């Protein structure tokens, strides 16, 4: 086999409950992940060394060296296999970069699946999951897809029953937000308030809405503990969220660490209308529609 192409979806967080800061610099979470139909594509081709090329959405903001998460994934997989494999990776990006939709994590997951195939390793998902958790908190979910709740750093996953499809609108912002800075801002806000930080818990009503495919109930239950921090770092997002609510979104929130804003619509037609209204309001760099849940990485 000379090359393998894998298509991998973005995520939105339906509930992101953030516990107190841990000694290792991470936070315990209850993180309800939901994979949506915005896809990056990663092609792995046989080569002696390791290299990566990136094209598409904001490709100029993605490193084309050993810092690229997809290359780090390939290196980690080769090390796990105990061999000095090479690969040339070509990434076609559609997921916004540093947008809170786990684009880098998706590329890392796709690289694990593609190289496992290209190198004929035949490693089971559970081995790839272990490598994924070392690469980043969002990478295990990017291997799984669908809808799942993550605990610990977000890397310990339990798949959830979700009826769907749910119809989404995403408002992309100019420039990204650093995940670490958003978590740090969340800690700063909490320190200023001086209130005790509760252990995160899954919202029963949200899980029920997912199981029932009830978009209206789901819209009312969407929460993100990082949202206030993202809004402090990017105040213009308040107007974006307000515009979506004003145009009838069932729910509106910042996706993960932002700055992408996510809006839940009642149907595919409603999502189209909402997207048109948000474009007209001029509150986003670009507006996209998508549905979820969708399966995880797939060889195409
Ligand atoms: C915001 C989310 O995207 C929601 O799914 C994730 O929690 C972030 O996942 P990620 O981008 O894979 O993050 P990582 O690469 O693991 O960590 C980046 C930084 O985010 C912060 N971080 C991340 C995950 C977590 N549970 N607690 C944290 O405090 C830490 O400062 C860490 O140094
Ligand atoms: N393959 C990659 N694709 C995108 N960004 C990458 C990649 N490799 C490294 N990066 C770097 O990682 C940073 C975070 O990018 P990413 O798109 O994963 O952010 P994000 O969607 O906010 O992440 P998350 O939702 O997991 O917090 C960017 O600054 C980018 O330069």
TrEMBL record:
<dbReference type="InterPro" id="IPR006204">
    <property type="entry name" value="GHMP_kinase_N_dom"/>
</dbReference>
<protein>
    <recommendedName>
        <fullName>4-diphosphocytidyl-2-C-methyl-D-erythritol kinase</fullName>
        <ecNumber>2.7.1.148</ecNumber>
    </recommendedName>
</protein>
<feature type="binding site">
    <location>
        <begin position="96"/>
        <end position="106"/>
    </location>
    <ligand>
        <name>ATP</name>
    </ligand>
</feature>
<keyword id="KW-0067">ATP-binding</keyword>
<keyword id="KW-0414">Isoprene biosynthesis</keyword>
<dbReference type="GO" id="GO:0016114">
    <property type="term" value="P:terpenoid biosynthetic process"/>
</dbReference>
<feature type="domain" description="GHMP kinase C-terminal">
    <location>
        <begin position="206"/>
        <end position="281"/>
    </location>
</feature>
<dbReference type="InterPro" id="IPR014721">
    <property type="entry name" value="Ribsml_uS5_D2-typ_fold_subgr"/>
</dbReference>
<keyword id="KW-0808">Transferase</keyword>
<comment type="similarity">
    <text>Belongs to the GHMP kinase family. IspE subfamily.</text>
</comment>
<dbReference type="GO" id="GO:0019288">
    <property type="term" value="P:isopentenyl diphosphate biosynthetic process, methylerythritol 4-phosphate pathway"/>
</dbReference>
<feature type="domain" description="GHMP kinase N-terminal">
    <location>
        <begin position="68"/>
        <end position="146"/>
    </location>
</feature>
<dbReference type="GO" id="GO:0005524">
    <property type="term" value="F:ATP binding"/>
</dbReference>
<comment type="function">
    <text>Catalyzes the phosphorylation of the position 2 hydroxy group of 4-diphosphocytidyl-2C-methyl-D-erythritol.</text>
</comment>
<feature type="active site">
    <location>
        <position position="11"/>
    </location>
</feature>
<feature type="active site">
    <location>
        <position position="138"/>
    </location>
</feature>
<dbReference type="Pfam" id="PF08544">
    <property type="entry name" value="GHMP_kinases_C"/>
</dbReference>
<comment type="pathway">
    <text>Isoprenoid biosynthesis; isopentenyl diphosphate biosynthesis via DXP pathway; isopentenyl diphosphate from 1-deoxy-D-xylulose 5-phosphate: step 3/6.</text>
</comment>
<dbReference type="InterPro" id="IPR020568">
    <property type="entry name" value="Ribosomal_Su5_D2-typ_SF"/>
</dbReference>
<keyword id="KW-0547">Nucleotide-binding</keyword>
<dbReference type="InterPro" id="IPR004424">
    <property type="entry name" value="IspE"/>
</dbReference>
<dbReference type="GO" id="GO:0050515">
    <property type="term" value="F:4-(cytidine 5'-diphospho)-2-C-methyl-D-erythritol kinase activity"/>
</dbReference>
<dbReference type="InterPro" id="IPR036554">
    <property type="entry name" value="GHMP_kinase_C_sf"/>
</dbReference>
<dbReference type="Pfam" id="PF00288">
    <property type="entry name" value="GHMP_kinases_N"/>
</dbReference>
<dbReference type="InterPro" id="IPR013750">
    <property type="entry name" value="GHMP_kinase_C_dom"/>
</dbReference>
<keyword id="KW-0418">Kinase</keyword>
């Amino acid at each position: 086999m000379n090359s393998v192409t894998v298509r991998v979806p973005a995520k939105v967080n339906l509930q992101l409950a953030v516990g107190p800061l841990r000694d290792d610099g991470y936070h315990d979470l209850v993180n309800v992940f939901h994979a949506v139909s915005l896809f990056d594509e990663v092609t792995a081709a046989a080569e002696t060394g390791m290299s990566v090329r990136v094209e598409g959405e904001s490709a100029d903001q993605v490193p084309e060296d050993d810092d690229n998460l997809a290359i780090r994934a390939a290196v980690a997989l080769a090390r796990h296999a105990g061999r000095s494999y090479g690969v040339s990776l070509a990434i076609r990006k559609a997921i916004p970069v540093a947008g809170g939709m786990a684009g880098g994590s998706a590329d890392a997951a796709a690289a694990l699946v593609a190289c496992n195939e290209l190198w004929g390793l035949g490693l089971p998902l559970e081995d790839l999951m272990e490598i994924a958790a070392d690469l980043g908190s969002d990478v295990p979910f990017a291997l799984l897809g669908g809808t799942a709740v993550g605990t610990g750093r977000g890397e310990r996953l339990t798949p959830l029953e979700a009826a769907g499809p749910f119809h989404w609108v995403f408002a992309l912002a100019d420039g990204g937000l650093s995940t670490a800075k958003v978590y740090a801002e969340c800690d700063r806000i909490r320190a200023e308030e001086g209130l005790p930080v509760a252990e995160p818990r899954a919202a029963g009503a949200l899980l029920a809405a997912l199981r029932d495919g009830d978009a209206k109930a789901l819209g009312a239950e969407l929460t993100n503990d990082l949202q206030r921090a993202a809004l402090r770092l990017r105040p213009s997002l308040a107007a974006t969220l307000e515009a979506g609510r004003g145009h009838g979104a069932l729910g509106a929130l910042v996706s993960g660490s932002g700055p992408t804003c996510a809006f839940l619509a009642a149907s595919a037609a409603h999502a189209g209308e909402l997207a048109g209204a948000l474009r007209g309001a001029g509150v986003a760099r670009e507006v996209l529609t998508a549905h979820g849940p969708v399966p995880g990485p797939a060889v195409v």
